[in-house]
Design brief:
binds adenosine-5'-diphosphate, two-stranded antiparallel ribbon, 68% helix, Serine Threonine Protein Phosphatase 5, Tetratricopeptide repeat, binds magnesium ion, single chain
């Protein structure tokens, strides 16, 4: 079972990965955006890692606090979207659960991903973070490792797509041939989950 400590370690591992990969995320965003995705998420997840520390006592509390930090510290479009993902996932886990199963997390993440799609009006194929998140949530029904592989493949598959949402959509055809930065960071979030699960 996955307890509050597992979720705190997931946020810390994501913060470490984002810190490590910030330059790559910003390079991706410089090709089809405004070159701030790495610095946006580094600021956000640094705040998340500090905030979740040792305090929140349930999985839901960890994710809701983390999501709130992202909403209040990340300046770009990705802050409210990732913030909504984590807050809605936390809400779906329920305040009473001291620990949850992988299957329960997969179900809750589905609610979180649906909320992202609703907030941003995007769907898979629009060249956004959803192209990594949706296949990852599908695969999480099987295993953490399958979710990580699906997110990585989904991020890679954004390269030939034309962006239909967010800043990259202003480029039209010129967005083709570049990986979506938000899909790349979503793959880091899912890889960190698999890492703390020991897969
Ligand atoms: P900004 O575009 O405001 O500079 P970021 O650079 O931090 O914000 O994040 C850009 C990423 O946000 C994109 O690569 C994409 O994955 C994601 N994104 C942008 N708009 C949407 C949307 N409407 N729905 C889902 N994801 C989106
Ligand atoms: Mg940007």
């Amino acid at each position: 079972m996955l307890d509050a400590d597992f979720f705190r370690r997931w946020m810390a591992a994501t913060a470490a990965a984002v810190d490590r990969e910030a330059d790559r995320l910003t390079d991706l965003d410089s090709a089809i955006g405004d070159a701030d995705h790495g610095s946006n998420l580094r600021r956000g997840f640094t705040a998340v890692a500090a905030a979740v520390g040792k305090e929140p006592a349930t999985p839901a509390a960890v994710l809701k606090l983390a999501g709130g930090q992202l909403i209040s510290t990340v300046g770009g479009a990705s802050g409210p979207l990732y913030g909504t993902l984590l807050r809605r996932t936390g809400k779906a886990l329920g305040d009473d659960a001291a620990d949850v199963s992988r299957e329960q997390l997969a179900e809750a993440l589905r609610a979180g991903v649906d909320a992202v799609a609703q907030l941003g009006g995007a769907a898979p194929g629009d060249k956004t973070m959803l192209d990594a998140l949706v296949p990852a949530v599908d695969a999480l029904a099987d295993s953490f490792a399958a979710a990580r592989a699906a997110a990585a493949a989904g991020a890679e598959a954004t390269v030939p797509l034309r962006a239909r949402k967010g800043r990259a959509s202003y480029l039209g055809e010129r967005s083709v041939g570049h990986q979506d930065p938000g899909a790349a960071s979503a793959a880091l979030l899912v890889a960190a989950l698999a890492e703390v699960a020991g897969e």
